[in-house]
Amino acid sequence: LLVAFKPGTPGAQIAQAHAAAGAQVIKRFDAIGVQLLAIPAGAVEASIALYEHNPYIRYAEPNLHRALILPTEGRDPMLPTGLGTEYLALQWGINNTAQPLYDTASGANVTGTLDADIDAPEAWDLSRSNENIRIAILDSGVECTHVDLLGKCIEERNFTASTTTADVIGHGTHVAGIAAANTDNGKGTAGVGWNARIGSLKVCHEWPSVDFPLLGMCDVADSVAGLLYAADNGYRVANMSYGSDPDPYSPSQAEADAIKYAWSKGVVLVAAAGNDYASTRHYPAAFPEVISVAATDRHDNLAYFSSFGSSWVSVAAPGHDILSAYPNVACGIPPDDPEGCYNWLSGTSMASPHVAGLAALVLARYAGITNVQARAYIENSANAQGALGQNFRAWVRYGRINAHLALTADNPPPPPPTITLTATGYKVKGQQKADLQWTGSAASSMDVVRNGSILTTTGNDGAYTDPINRTGGGSYTYKVCETGTAACSNEATVAF
């Protein structure tokens, strides 16, 4: 279970609640006030009900499992071979010249459509990002010794129950290559983010544990851990090429809190919209702070598997028959082979890192901008019409990304509004309370943040009272942020 207690809950009350449920604390996510608990087998629903009847509980929910499944299996193109071969000509999503490419559906070579791409070469003339822009690859791990990723990995972290940081599935390595493979090095593929560096934050574990199944499991608690780590360790972009499966599609409140926390720390959040060719919302993509990404094919059509929905999917990007790095063992070669292994995969998992790589270009091009502004550059510059005249906005809110346009915006997005906050502390019958008042925001709702953690979300009426309900002394630092953005007020502190 994932359980969140109300701020200020006495430790004795927390221990009593856990004892009543027969629960043990496995992890604590202090930044968002959440605990991961082990409970007796078969007692999920009963334990949730027990916690929800406790007046000290904010919420209790199962630690959901998400499936990491690619939509295509079977007839992929033969793996590229040849020492030092450069495969940029096969990356139609980066530069589509109507070149003939292998089609997984027919097994034949099929030409694409001219300019059904993201205009990456034109964008690279303006920005190639830099090594200070870090992309967190929240996935199944990354083979950092791959020739196309050498020197790219800042670190490898494992947040799962897996015993290895290695990418046993292959998914994370493929995603990392799309976002930031070594580019213009005379071999392999080109990464959209060029000079950006990555962190392998393993939040999806292999299931079953065999060599290269196209299946992995991503626990919400591991997603939360990866997001909080990325937010606190200097990552500017986070890519999440995973999502909720059909049972259930409902969001996790703990993950929502982690998303809000990462957004408040300035991280550009990008996620795959899902592969069920329906408008059903997948999470984390459907959270408002996240750039949700659908997939297109080499003709600028919505890919046959891609989820869609102009009310919640932000943009589209190439995601069908995408060539990228793959763990070398899949090609039967050593981990440090100078040629490297490559493979074609399809999915919104492949579309999402195109956007993450673009975010790295944007952040370098417009130094000093916020994640709010970076997102606006990406979304507002997207092509509303496809290479064959398709109306992208029938499928997504903004269109298919265009890297060149994102880097040549005539009207930069405005900075976040200036929000002014004041806080007054007082006591009622010895109990601490704090009155907050703010001006300068026209948002419909605001997140109230206390000591770095989101306390609650409230309507934007300019005032909120925090019923701290503690006695004695202490101090509390507050700020308010527009829900779904990084626009926050100054900090205001009350002391008792």
From TrEMBL:
<protein>
    <submittedName>
        <fullName>S8 family serine peptidase</fullName>
    </submittedName>
</protein>
<dbReference type="InterPro" id="IPR015500">
    <property type="entry name" value="Peptidase_S8_subtilisin-rel"/>
</dbReference>
<feature type="active site" description="Charge relay system">
    <location>
        <position position="139"/>
    </location>
</feature>
<feature type="domain" description="Fervidolysin-like N-terminal prodomain">
    <location>
        <begin position="1"/>
        <end position="63"/>
    </location>
</feature>
<feature type="active site" description="Charge relay system">
    <location>
        <position position="171"/>
    </location>
</feature>
<keyword id="KW-0378">Hydrolase</keyword>
<dbReference type="InterPro" id="IPR054399">
    <property type="entry name" value="Fervidolysin-like_N_prodom"/>
</dbReference>
<comment type="similarity">
    <text>Belongs to the peptidase S8 family.</text>
</comment>
<dbReference type="Pfam" id="PF00082">
    <property type="entry name" value="Peptidase_S8"/>
</dbReference>
<dbReference type="Pfam" id="PF22148">
    <property type="entry name" value="Fervidolysin_NPro-like"/>
</dbReference>
<keyword id="KW-0645">Protease</keyword>
<keyword id="KW-0720">Serine protease</keyword>
<feature type="domain" description="Peptidase S8/S53">
    <location>
        <begin position="131"/>
        <end position="391"/>
    </location>
</feature>
<dbReference type="InterPro" id="IPR036852">
    <property type="entry name" value="Peptidase_S8/S53_dom_sf"/>
</dbReference>
<feature type="active site" description="Charge relay system">
    <location>
        <position position="349"/>
    </location>
</feature>
<dbReference type="InterPro" id="IPR022398">
    <property type="entry name" value="Peptidase_S8_His-AS"/>
</dbReference>
<dbReference type="InterPro" id="IPR023828">
    <property type="entry name" value="Peptidase_S8_Ser-AS"/>
</dbReference>
<dbReference type="InterPro" id="IPR023827">
    <property type="entry name" value="Peptidase_S8_Asp-AS"/>
</dbReference>
<dbReference type="InterPro" id="IPR050131">
    <property type="entry name" value="Peptidase_S8_subtilisin-like"/>
</dbReference>
<dbReference type="InterPro" id="IPR000209">
    <property type="entry name" value="Peptidase_S8/S53_dom"/>
</dbReference>
